[in-house]
Design a protein that fits this description.
Elements: E1 3-9, E2 16-20, E3 23-26, E4 32-33, H1 35-48, H2 56-71
Antiparallel strand pairs: 1-2, 2-3, 3-4
Organism: Promethearchaeum syntrophicum
Protein name: TFIIB-type domain-containing protein
Length: about 70
């Protein structure tokens, strides 16, 4: 089975996602997403970054997104 070497971050837990066949699978939590679903999740998280009234969950996601974006090479 062919494994994609490019490492992606899981939108749920931040774990490493590996590409197998037509899905990306998180090694930590087991979340499996197609490339389209993966992009949609990150766009949703990114758009929630700019809300003014944040609940604790939104704040946690925004802080994770900030961390993720700063860790890119």
């Amino acid at each position: 089975m062919e494994v994609d070497k490019k490492m992606a971050k899981c939108p749920e837990c931040g774990g490493e996602m590996i590409g197998k066949m037509k899905r990306k699978i998180c090694e930590t939590c087991g979340l499996a997403l197609t490339p389209t679903e993966y992009d949609r999740e990150w766009r949703r998280i990114h758009s929630s970054k700019y809300t003014k009234d944040e609940d604790p969950e939104s704040k946690r996601k925004r802080e994770y997104l900030d961390w993720y974006e700063s860790s890119k090479n």
